[in-house]
Input
Amino acid sequence: MFEIGGRPVGLHAAPFFIAEMSGNHNGSLDRALEIVDAIADAGAHALKIQTYTADTMTLNIPHGEFLIQDEKSLWNGRTLYDLYEEAHTPWAWHGPIFERAKQRGMLAFSTPFDKTAVDFLASFDVPCYKVASFENIDLPLIRKVASMGKPMIISTGLASLVEIAEAVDAARGAGCKDLIILKCTSTYPASPADSNLRTIPYMREVLGVEVGLSDHTLGIGCAVAAVAMGATVIEKHVTLRREDGGVDSAFSLEPHEVRLLVDETERARQAMGIVRFGATERERESLVFRRSLYVVRDIAAGEVFTSDNVRAIRPGLGLPPKHQEHITGRRAAHDIKRGTPMSWELLA
Output
């Protein structure tokens, strides 16, 4: 376990929920600040944005591989440049957004997409850095981020185990001590069937790092299941209202869903508990509601116990029902009233 900005991250802490704004500000700083307030009210622990410009991401070419031509894509027909131009968070907005998050009691940080973005974020003394799935093979960028001496989060979308291990080695080799790997499926939205959450405990064991989930599925089901598999961090895209549109709105949570996710993932963590059998401390009072053996008809001294005068009923103050066969055929030591819990002392 370690801390990000004073907040514990690990199996014995509440799941760390990161609300990803991405481009859902829809080009408005006022809307961005409204999102900050809404997710703070909903209980998010951290806000994350993205730090890039269209020119640091791609080239302004309207054809070939720079044009998205996939009918299944949310962004079919858009050029990469236009998409990033619309979705990017202007660098001048970072200060107001980070300050509002701080005022509302949330941590705030970002995903840098190149070295200039890393240096820019360093001026805000962000508590950690995130490396996106599509950049997890950019080992020079990972080393640059690791050199900042802050906790790092790396998403695994598309990466093989070898590539993930290379990213982890690059981060650790450049000085990162506190590292989180997020299981991620890089489709938008993602199918639960492609989430493969059983990978989470495997990565924890093999890589020796904290592991979480960067989730692009609809709803909160995968996030809750991930916590049950050992995820200590959950990242989901957020928006004010999906109906408002935006580059990522279709698979983003609304504020009331953020509250539900925060509450239910913590319940899932608490429910995991330990391997245990028998009554818990809180269950002990309920033991009385078990069945046990009771005298159900008045019995005279010397009378034989039978299945007609001794039966298993509630409450559970008598001998356990498994002793019925040991009692049947024995004789009563003295007169016994109906409603007496059966005990060995009643036998002659």
User: Anything to note?
Assistant: Residues 255-272 form the longest helix (18 residues). The first strand starts at residue 2 and ends at 4. DSSP finds eleven helices and twelve strands in the chain. The CA atoms of residues 151 and 178 lie 5 Å apart.
